[in-house]
What we know:
The structure is a homodimer. By secondary structure, chain A is of the alpha+beta class. The first copy, chain A, has a single domain, classed as 3-Layer(aba) Sandwich (NADH Oxidase). Helix content of chain A is about 35%, strand content about 15%. Chain A has helices at about 10-15, 30-40, 60-70, 70-80, 105-120, 135-140, 165-170, 180-185, and strands spanning about 50-55, 85-90, 125-130, 145-155, 185. In chain A, strands 1-2-4-3 form a four-stranded antiparallel beta sheet, sandwiched between helices. In chain A, α2 packs antiparallel against α5. At the A-B interface, α1, α2, β1, α5 and β5 of A face α1, α2, β1, α5 and β5 of B.
Amino acid sequence: MKDNTGKINDLIKKRFSPLAFDKRAIEEYKIMRLFEAARWAPSSRNEQPWRFIFATRDDGPAFENMISTLAEGNRIWAQNVPLLILSIASFYSSFSGKPNYYAMHDTGMAVGNLLVQATEMGLYVHQMGGYDKKMARQKLGIPEQYEPVAMIAVGYRGNPDDLPDDLQKREQARRTRLPVEEIVFRRVWKTT
Amino acid sequence: MKDNTGKINDLIKKRFSPLAFDKRAIEEYKIMRLFEAARWAPSSRNEQPWRFIFATRDDGPAFENMISTLAEGNRIWAQNVPLLILSIASFYSSFSGKPNYYAMHDTGMAVGNLLVQATEMGLYVHQMGGYDKKMARQKLGIPEQYEPVAMIAVGYRGNPDDLPDDLQKREQARRTRLPVEEIVFRRVWKTT
Lengths: 192, 192
């Protein structure tokens, strides 16, 4: 199998998760389009398990609420972003009440759409697992049958030169991927 | 909040999960680009938990192996597709060996990339949860620490008029989504 880097969709190729964000506010219509894109993802039995809570810097205390849940290593850069989104997954089927095996998976696909849409509109996105999920649940009023997934920072690109050295290095370090031969197998597992 | 249907990325808008597929083979370079696109998805700690096994109709018994795992209601239409992919998730961190909360989520994001890339190349994708996961694991040799996720049918669009009436209806029935007000909340849960 041959590696085809460079021939894929431009938005997928361009996307990455920066640490340097501009403080500039995001236009409201662009924020709504992020969710509109997410909304059209496919899902198992069309369950649409994804939910989103968002706040912009202009939302004041609501925004600070979200910032306050972040791990220190994330807060140091994410406190500058203009928009935070918490992705949330409904872990139970709305039809049967049983656990939905695809809850996280389908929420990931919805976020995938959001990433494409963001990139198309000149925005960058950095998702974080490093935040206090219990605190987020409490402060944002998330019901029990839903699970907080990722805290999502969104904004225009900032100047990496404005970052402290260690963050600059962290930002650069992330653009590696496993070779395609290690993740894709033809016919059966690992006989490429 | 206003609904913004129609202003989102064209590929996201165009994508849907058909039941009518053309039998025409997919070019090998296009197959590889699907995985290349998937590969560049983001993931928690860059774990890249996604794996894929694929077979084309030309792979003969290997392809029949995958077809044989499908639930009857899926086999009836999916047996005509030229390409089947099984998405697979590594449920444990390759760093710590601990469960990876984002395994399914990040695999979903990778598949989201695959969907965008497929649509850009004129291909359609229909994911299925309805297949025998135990049989798939056994027939495809999937190791214990990995979990089968979705059986993914890929192909060019077929003529829906060639479908039996009930499948035509099933294909049309799927294009609904919850209103944006039910899935997106500003500041806190459900106070839009």
